[in-house]
Hints:
single chain; 586 residues; Beta-Lactamase; 5 domains; six-stranded mixed sheet; 16 helices; 35% helix; disordered C terminus
Amino acid sequence: MPDSFLVHSGTEIVYANATFRLFIGAESQGELIGASLLDIVNSEYQTQLRKQITEIENGVAPSRGLTLVLDTLTGKSREVIAVSSMIEWDGTQHVQTSVFPMAGEDASPKQRLHGQEIDEAPIGITISDPSQHDNPLIRVNDGFCEQTGYDREEILGRNCRFLQGEATREEPVAKMRNAIDTEEPVTVELRNYHKDGSMFWNRVTIIPIRSESGTVVNYLGYQQDITGKKEYQQDLSLFRAQAEEADKAIFISDLDGTIQYVNPAFEALTGYSSTEAIGRNPRILKSGQHDEAFYTELWETITAGEVWEAELTNQTKHGELFEVEQKIVPVTNEYGEITHFVGIEQDITEQVLTTQTLDVLNRVLRHNLRTATQIIDGHAELLEAEEMSPEARQLSAATIREQTAVMEKIAERTATIREIWDPTESHQTWEHLDIQPLIATYRTQYCDATISTTVHGGSNVRIRSAGLFELALEEAIENAIEHNDQSLPEVEITVQRALEGDQLQIVVADNGPGIPEDERHVIESGEETPMSHSLGVGLWLMEWVATTLGGEFTIADNEPRGARLEFELPVADSDEPDESKTATDQ
C-alpha cells in the first residue's frame, strides 16, 4: 500500500502516519488528531469525499477512490488521488484513506502520478485512462517494472492484459472486466507472465478513481507478486493430503500459536474434533505435569526458528493423560520469515508401559521365580534324605508350600498384566464404577481388618473400563492389609470428585509400615534398574492400570503412619445428580 495514509472515524482523524504529516506540513500528531479531514480538503471536493466515506462505512463498496485537492498547512494546494477502505484500528472499524500525490499544478490527473512517491512503494502500482481506447496504462511505478521485467517504455500505452498468457484462467479476467464495466473496485488472483516468459501469481486490485463530479477518470491498480504464498498454499494442500492419512497426530498453528488445522489422528488421540481444536491454542492439551519453564523453553526454541523435540505428558479432552514424543517445526517463507508451526505427536504411552512391563517381568522371572525354585529344589533334596527328623521334614514341606504359593501369586499377577495388555480389550468403554458394593465385598473378604469409607459427591461414576480399575483397587487394599504390621489393620478409602467434575480421586490409606522410599522412587521414576527395583509387581500393577485408563497413581506417607495410595482418573457424568454430599460408614 502507499506510504502516505491517515485513519479516521467519519471525518474525524484518529491517526496520520509520518509520511502524510510531512506531505501536508503537520509537525506532530497533535495538530491532526481530533480534527476533521474536511478541514484540509478544498471546499469544492468536500461533498464528494464525504459521500465516499459514507459509502465505505455503510459497506456499499470495499474501496473507493477519487481525485481531490488538499489545502496543506503550509498554504499550498496539492492534487491527490484519495483511496479509502475499511480497516480494524484499536479493535474497532475505521476508514483508512491512502493518498497518492499527483504531479505539479500544471499536470493533468490523466497524465501521470508523482514519480517519487509511488516509485518508493513496495508493490507494483499502475494508473490507466478509461477515456482512451482500450483503457491503456499511462503511469507505472518502478515496482511494477521490476515485478514484470518490462521497461517503462514497453508498458505505457498498452492495456494490462499483455501480462496474460497460456495458463491465465478466464474466470478472474472476466471478473476484472465486469468490475471495470460497472465501475466497481475488484481484487483477483491470477497467473501472469514476466517478460522472459516465466509465470508468476499476481494479486491485482483495481480501484476506480472519480473526479469531484463522480466521473471515473482513472483506474488505480495495485499488483503484488504472491507466487511464494501460492506455492506455500500448494505445499500446504499436499501436506494436508498426506497428513490426512498419517498415523501421527499433526496440527498446524499460526505465529501466535492458534491452531489452523488438525488431522484425523489428532482428533482420535486427543478427543478434540477439528471444529473444537481450530481457533484454539495447543495449551488445551496441557496436563499440568510440566512447569512453566518447560513451555517457555519450547516457545523460545521454535520462535528462534529451531526444531523442538521432547517427550511429555499431554491430556485429552476427557482428562486422560497420555505420553507423546512431540516435535514442533517452524515453517518459513521464501524470505526466511516464520509463518507457521507444525506439531507432530506420536503416542508412546503403550511403548512406555511395554518397556516397564518387560523390565519388571524380567526381574520377577529372573529373581523371584529363580529364588523360589531354588528354595523348593533345596528342600526337596532334604526330604529325600532319610536322616531328617519329623519336625524338619514338616518344616521343609511347609516351606515348599509357601514358595509354591509365591509362584502361584506371580502367575496370577502375570494374568492380570495380560488383561491390561489384552488386544481384545479396548479399555475405551465408559462403565459405571460403584464404590460402595465393592467396599462391602472387601469387608467380607478381609474380616480381620477395619475398612472405612468417606465419599464426597456420590460413589456411582463412569470411568473407562471399571472392571480393570477394580483389579488395581483390590491390589491396593490387599497391599494395605497383608503388608500391615499392626494387630488390627486399618484401611480408609476416600472417594472425591474434583471441583471441575472431570476427575475422580480415590485414596487408599493404611496404618502399616508405609512404602519404602526406594520402592516409591522406582515407581515415580518409571524405570527399574539392577540396583533400583521394587520388591513385587503390585505397585507396578496399580501404576499401569491408572496409566492405561488415562489417569495417575501416586504414593505418599499417611499420618501418623502408613501409606497413601492415590488414584486420579478421568470420569464422565454419571446417572446420579452431581450433588455435594459426604457419606461415611464403618
